[in-house]
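Dear Dr. L.,

I hope this message finds you well. Following up on our conversation about the binding site, I have prepared a predicted three-dimensional model of the protein together with nicotinamide-adenine-dinucleotide. For your records, I am including the exact sequence and ligand specification that went into the calculation, followed by the structure tokens. Please feel free to forward this to your student if that is useful.
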Amino acid sequence: MAQNRKKVLVLGAGYAGLQAVTKLQKEVSANEAEITLVNKNKYHYEATWLHEASAGTLNYEDLIYPIESVIDKNKVNFINAEVTKIDRNAKKVETTHGIFEYDILVVALGFESETFGINGMKEHAFQIENIHTARELSRHIEDKFANYAASKEKDENDLAILVGGAGFTGIEFLGELTDRIPELCNKYGVDQNKVKITCVEAMPKILPMFSENLVNYVVNYLEERGVEFKIGTPIVACNEKGFKVKTNDQEQQLEANTAVWAAGVRGSQLMEESFEGVKRGRIVTKQDLTIDGHDDIFVIGDVSAFIPAGEERPLPTTAQIAMQQGAHVAKNIENILNGQATTDFEYIDRGTVCSLGSHDGVGHVFGRDITGKKAAFMKKVIDTRAVFKMGGVGLAFKKGKF
Ligand code: NAD
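The resulting structure of the complex is given below.
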């Protein structure tokens, strides 16, 4: 019996991969499958809370929990290693801690920051990408306030923060900053009127997926708290002084001692190295979440581009979608183990909320626009639900937002 066990290999313990494993371990017996999970960190982190840790409104420790605390060690072999190569012809994956063979592979390697080759961006701007970047950025912001307070010859740019991109990440980060800045001013005795936060966005409109009412709410909320928007202004370079932007065909230098790039994400670089037809680290999947020519490879989360039947554009990359895909893949693997056909993935859109600090926000939930405390409450429900779905009531109690 045990010799027939299929080798299921899951790469990545983000929302998609970890959800697949936590569901699989409930449904599949140890006799049916040998499940191996590979992840470069020993912990899972709440990627959707990174803007909070980056601004310093939440401690980075609150975003992480050990992967081993949510997996069943009798069923899942956890390998703390980095994936270095996927060899789909040999059905093997190379990692920094050995080579693993598979019968069924789940690729869930997640996102990284994309700077589109903009000169100096990687070197001079902070990214909102992982726990390390969040720690660096929150410390840097505080250091600049402390430095300003302690210096005799004050550098006004210590109190200037540039945020590139007014997508969800940029806006949610700005919302957190407007919570954090008054705290820092109070702590270091800095006049809040001297703080300058500027958001630079290339497109003429921010948050295009939201109604005009919601967009106006966001802009008013942030402007009232001192954020200046430069819309329709592409960033063309970054240097030690800040961003270089283009306005009316003229280049202009915006100065700040903190520049944050929140203007683009892509799937893992490993995707291009491992598969054909990959764009910005994402591969188009079939309806059952496998990929063309490989019924034994599922690709989910931010490295996948799932185009719902009858539509033309792939779904965006969100935690909600990644978790639903993880759960669906677990079902499909169970089907394969039982000799049944796989089923198509159907995304259930439960709505979207964009937070503005911890007490405000906007969203479109159950077909309705919501703003203010209602949106902030919904966001906490969404955040806590994600934790619950990975580790049950115990984890939700420890890490949830209520
Ligand atoms: P994004 O790609 O959605 O937004 C990036 C923004 O940066 C865009 O508005 C773009 O026009 C702008 N930009 C790009 N290049 C620029 C340049 N050179 N100069 C100035 N502006 C430039 O990225 P994101 O906000 O990180 O979101 C990534 C994904 O994650 C999206 O699918 C989003 O829906 C999802 N997300 C969702 C939530 C949520 O549901 N609350 C939160 C964060 C992210």
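In brief: The first strand starts at residue 6 and ends at 11.

With kind regards,
A. P.
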